[in-house]
Design a protein that fits this description.
The chain has eight helices and eight strands; from the N terminus they run αβαβαβαβαβαβαβαβ. It is an alpha/beta fold. It is globular.
């Protein structure tokens, strides 16, 4: 039933994409503004704020959470935001299909599921292969911003990104930023901060040239 519903949505809503090939983003948006991807947008608050804050950037949200997709679609129409598109599906399979190498200027991954139980850790999104994939899709000097409240996941992220020669950590000390003032706070982020949780922020730049490890 859900598949039929999304097929209908795609036919009726030009901002929703359920495709398995490169959609020509310049044609989709009608301009050549920088492409910025949020992976796992939840209810879409971060994406909405970013699109309003940066009208000359094109934002793509990728998720498979049906309720969040529907809510975001409603808000996009209400706010008449034309620089957002939604891509449906599992990012591990869709990112290689929907983006050319070097096509993305920025990637945001805010509070990915930490899968806290030991037997589920293998389900975490951030793995070495995925880190390399994001590095390939980012333009030289492009950036990736990450946030999590899970200490163990934060340490894994730090290890994997620091080990990838395509990336340069933007914090020369611990590797974690204390805060980020230039990006809106997500709903989860506000809740975690109010509850007194420590948030781990990471920011990396894609090096203009790098020698991949073998």
């Amino acid at each position: 039933m859900a598949l039929i519903t999304f097929a209908q949505i795609e036919e009726e809503d030009p901002y929703f994409l359920d495709v398995d090939k490169w959609p020509d983003w310049q044609t989709q948006f009608g301009n050549s503004h920088p492409l910025k991807l949020e992976i796992g947008f939840g209810m879409g608050s971060f994406l909405i704020e970013m699109s309003a804050q940066e009208p000359r950037s094109n934002f793509i949200g990728m998720d498979f959470y049906h309720k969040g997709i529907r809510k975001l679609m409603t808000r996009i129409k209400k706010l008449q935001l034309e620089n957002i598109r939604m891509a449906y599906g599992d990012v591990r399979f869709k990112v290689p299909l929907l983006f050319k190498d070097g096509e993305l200027e920025t990637v945001y991954i805010n509070f990915p599921d930490p899968w806290p139980k030991k037997r589920h850790i293998k389900r975490r999104l951030i793995k070495p292969d995925f880190v390399k994939l994001i590095g390939q899709k980012l333009a030289p000097e492009g950036q990736i911003h990450l946030a999590t409240d899970s200490e163990s996941y934060a340490i894994e992220m730090l290890e994997y990104f620091n080990s990838e020669p395509l990336f340069q950590n933007q914090d020369p000390g611990s590797g974690f930023l204390e805060s980020r003032v230039d990006l809106p706070k997500t709903k989860y982020e506000k809740n975690f901060i109010n509850a007194g949780h420590k948030i781990y922020y990471l920011e990396y730049s894609r090096l203009a040239s790098a020698t991949p490890t073998t």
